[in-house]
Description:
Number of helices: 2
Structural class: mainly alpha
Shape: rod-shaped
Amino acid sequence: MPLPRADLLAIERTVLANERTFLAYFRTSAVFLTSGLAILNIEFFVRMRDFALVLLFGSPIVLALGLWRYLVVRRKVLRLAKESAEVTT
């Protein structure tokens, strides 16, 4: 017996929420990267060079953290969906 429609929709909402969260991490990473590059290239912000470097080095860290979190949550959701499908059959 397949999962009830309400459970399938709940799983789908969780998957979509996980994807939105990853995209938020991706956007943050992109903003860090572009802001860091802009600060480094505009002479007016010479005194903010250290901050620009923090943004540049933080960008891949934020992206890696977001990707790791996405994969962990995805595996957990898929595992729980599979377990609940087995229980109902």
